[in-house]
Amino acid sequence: MNGFSRWYCAQAHTAMHPADHRADPHPPAKRLRFAHRGSVAASWCATRAFNDPILRELPAASPMRNLSAAGAIAGGAKRRAKELRNGYAGLSRRIRGAREGLRALRNYGDGTKGTRKGSLGRGRFGGQKREMKWRKGRLGGVRWQANCVMLPKNTIKQEGEREGEVRDGCIDTFYEADIDGRMRQRSPSHWHDGLDMPVNEAGLVAKGTDMDTGRLLVYYFRCIDFDADVYHVRKAVELVLHGPDLYNPDDKRYKGRKPNFEVVMGKSPAGRIHNGTATLRVPTHVGMGFLKSGQKNNIIVNGRALRVFDVRHGLPPNVKETLEKALYIDPEKDKCRTQIEEQAGLVRLRIAQVQFGVWYKPSNSRASQGRAFSAEYEREFLRQSAAYISVVYEHKLIRIDVRITLFATKPQTFLTFRSIQIGQRETEETNYLILVKFSSIRKLGLGYDEFGQPFIIFDLFNPPNFEQESYNNRAPEGIKRKGKYKTRDRISALDDAHALIAPYAHHLRVVLANPEDLVEFEKICHITQCEPRPIRVPHVDAIPMQFFSQSNLYHVQRWIKTMDWKVAFQIEAYLRCGFLNTHDLLFTLQTPIEQVVHDYGAEASEVLRHFSTALRERKGDESLSDCLARALEEYRTAKQRRTAKKRRTAKPLQLMQDHISCHHVIVTPSRMLLEGPYPTQSNHVIRKYREHDSTFAERFIRVEFRDEDHLAYRWDGDVDGTWFLQQRVGGILRRGFELGGRAFEFLAYSTSALREHSVWFVSPFRDPEEGYMTAEKIRSSLGDFSELRRTPSKYAARIAQAFTATYRSVKIRRGEWEEQPELGLHTDGVGTISPGLARKIWEEKCRTRSLSCEPPSAFQFRFLGYKGVVVVDHRLEGIKMRLRSSQRKFPVHNVEEADFDIVRSFDYPNPVHLNRPAVMALDNRGVKTQAFLDLQEKEKFSIHFSSDSLEEFRKQLKKYGLGSKFHLAFILEQLNKLGLDFKDNADKKTIRSAFFDRLVRYLVNHSLREVKYKARIPIPNSYQLVGVADEGRAYINEGVKEDDVFTLKEGFIYVCVEEPGGQPEYFTGTCLISRSPVIHPGDVQRVYAVGEPPQDKLCFFRGLKNVVVLPAVGDRSLASCLAGGDLDGDTYDIYYKNHGLLPTGHAKPANHPPGEVWKLEEGRGDATVEDICDFIVEYINSDVMGLLADRHIIIADQSKEGVFDERCMKLAALCSKAVDYAKNGEPVDIHNNQLPKPLLKFKPDWHKAEVTGARELDYYESDRALGHLYRNISLRDPDKPIEGFPTASPGSIAPLEDAISCALAPLVQNTLNGPPEPPEAENIQAEGLHTDFVREMRYICVTHTLVDAPDVRLTEEEVVLGTILANCTQSRWRSDRSYRMKLHTGELVDDIYDRIVQSEGEGAPTEDELRAGLSSAWAAWGWAQHHRDKEFIESFSLIMLWIVLHCLDELPKP
Fold this sequence. Notes:
Helix content is about 35%, strand content about 20%. The protein has about 1450 residues and is α+β, with helices and mostly antiparallel strands. The radius of gyration is 38 Å and the shape is globular. It starts with a helix and ends with a helix.
């Protein structure tokens, strides 16, 4: 409210209450009109006058009865004026006059000169002298601007009907009337552009709006130096507000955070960066302290003290929430980032030509000559079109904009730009984007060609991303965009010509239009911290060799179709992975490869598989023919050695019965990459047909859909992937594809594979028992899905049960299993089995190895149409299994006997580790940061201490699950028993192994990385256990007296853990139970563990180990209270004896309603495979679980309320819906759900990706527990030797004189009942085994890397430990590759064991076989000691050492 409004309010009040004021000569009706003459509504007057006796005398239907309608005067809307015009024409004229006068006065606020008239009175305004005459008084020197609402707190009338806006205003000096009618001069005030306040149509404040005495205060600055910017002002304000006089870190209102504030500079009409004014917004308690502290004159900018004035008005809700909840960010960081973004935005360089191609080595080139570039596709952009290159700092990429005019021609397969021809009619313009991520660049070169043209050449790990954008924002035909802000679409190629070469040629060369732009590009790359930095390169030949012309590709395809399919797969892999081009295959290698096929027959594909490894390792001066000859020689030599010894080593790698050698296809937007074959865990379907014919396994291939960088698809905010996924992914799923002459069609997926966007394809085959098998016939044979045909997602999920990775155990006959009643919702997914059946299952699973423990108490399984968990019930006798209806997902008819497939057996307890979501939830629920730091410090000490002794090293290996495939923990345990250690002490001898030194270093780096980037901190005395139900209520329902049965009450659990070789431990007392991931604060609950059950009562869970038993009573199951869990295999974290982690506050568990199930429209038939394909496409497009979880934890870090923030609560509900997406088919619509946004554009420092050189300007220092944990860890370089670790230099110890050999020799001699043959330097068997081992290790090292590049490979230490230390932005991708690498490595180690310890039967080896194996392993160990310089000799020696120690441990002691 401006001065005139307040003056009119006072006059109206005086007119209504003459007894309280001096006499007024005007009649009541005229006095009332004073209330309407102001520029805005007098809400205070309206509130006071509504019940005034004088006003009550007016007619009830009169608009003046509700004086709040006078608020419409501020906006001056004609509609509002008409409402007040009924019977009061004079008032309407005054409204219009006020509108005109106020519009004129607004111009003077912007410095306009002139004279305007309004019905408020006559005024003269011009130059520096501005005044307004009104009535008999004069208000001199007034410069003011209307449309400003300022109301005292006690006069606000809040409405919530229809909302409008009152725009900003400015009052520099004015006189206002207090409510007692006296005039006083008021300080200047300012309302900056953009500070809108919602009001209703009557001009009143909208419901819920905080005004001047709400939770924010606003101050107005004047006299700001024009050379100062917003960052100078923010820094000056920071010195005052965060100074010791105003900021007290112990004040609970701050919650340990410095108060936030915002400075908005006034806009200058003269083009300056500001107009000398600014607005400061601060929370109320900070602003009040600022007023009382006397610091108003201490804000100094560029040596000038600012004039500060108090302004009281409302602010937008988003501004208010940000200032109240968000963390304060140093203005220097914001300034630096903004400056870089502005500099990058100014550099946009014209492009003359874009080329895509491949690197190749000219056939007639010298050995020292570098590679050349074959431009397989090129386009010019100087005549009819234009292209520009720029660097996008925010998204860490180089962007090429291609603007092309489309013409009306016949549509093509890839709707993109085409060559312009005479006579074509112009239709519309489309913008195409080529986006090169920094992380995709291997090398970035700058130079000038032989004609002096500047070029930029990219040597890329992965192809760029391609997008298109229509200027009319029209979506592709038949596609409805996901959100209204989606303006771009992802595409696979730029045009039809580019689509032909894109699968093979993705390296990029750009020719600039202006020579001087090359320096400008180099400069901006350094400013934006582009990694790798551009380097100057000499002349690079760019010649179109047409390697991937249609003709050459046709001849290659025609040739490989004549080959065996496994051979054809390898040849096509050379081409698609960029190892070779068509010229190499057709003119250099075609004849040698055909000779390999002729000479090696069925083994030819194995030879060619290892040839791909040789291609990756090829030196620059080695020809392709020499490379193939080298690979052949290695294979031929190994085969001769195997034949000479007549050992069972005809095949290099024998797999376990539950694994297959699987071929893999990775489909990216522009490529189809081929990998393998390598070991993959089998499933029920593949095992079934492999038993009929072993070659049928190769008919099944794994297909993954990933982005160009092999990571999961993620779209930018304005990119819509719907059309692209339907065309690229949907097209392959529906139509299948041809590979090596075989047609493959979509089959199914498993639930876990779908989360990785991976599915199974099959090539039809003829089965000797079931006939010609297609994908549809295989699916139909699995069971009866008729009840699910209306819900495609559930239909696909039930089929997925048969494709879950499982181990086959025993067959169960129809009379050995039955169904039992449910115990409400408490037994969802869990059944029971007899101890006899559990023992039978366990013996079958472990029959190839000697059993070391009793059968586990629970198994996760698949059986016919059933799934879930079965737990041992000691009351059941014989072979018995009792399942429940909640475990039956679909019926299978006419089956008398079926396989019981094991998904997982719970034979040992898993340790519990903290993680980021759990730390954030516990932190917000009152757990002190120091409690987390204490656990981290303990773990950090343990990690660094692992280099002190074998025992500590072993503990760390077990803790992080490393080295298990090489049995490293067992080896260390046995060596420790032999009196060996890392360092000398009273009773230990030093090993002095350089390889163990490197293993320790890699372990330390891996462990510290897990702790730093994942907050993965082990919790002592805590375990992760599978959940099962207390079946005691079932005993009672069957007739047992309730008093005779010990059951769990609500809020109680039972836990008994037993480590391998240890004693059972019963948990008693208060515990925490949770289920990962912890999103909602109520996902962590306190429970009470009952300890060992009483002996005098019948108890179901007596004797159960390594499970957590949950109660079967209460209105709601405990499992459902923990992130919506159930008992079909979910594991739960039990925190025990960790009182520092007990939350001080209680949080109710989430109660998210179950989502709706997607069903087909009425009138449609049953779901088909096309519906399943559509669902997979939509799943990939709507897979936002990672986005939601990431957004949730970032907002929790930025908000003072943490996980209790309403945004986090909304995200937790969306996460719950996203988890069930794969089952119910209802996606999370993040566009229409208005996904909450972070409060800051910066991310917390703990969110930094695992990349070197992360930009500090993108992150702020988090004050949460996660931030303290992150900064408390410094990684150790794995290549830097550990100080004080004793090692021996190469060759300093004679063979078999090392500490390990000396300790083992007498034990081997005694066990073999005589001295064994002394290990010799020549051992044909050992040499042959080593050759095979090296060849497979090479393949492992180059296949399971995170980046598909020839020069990238894993180290020997990484393979032994089972970790990948390379940086990765998505931990899920690293986990997937690590899992495959460990599976492959485990099969290799087991295969070497089977060759050394040869067993005639299928069970465990006999004593004689173990003795023979011990002798062979000891000889191979000795051979390895004589050849320490051979490749992978350390890991090979480790396997031999394990076999020796294993045989010694299994054989009877002499």
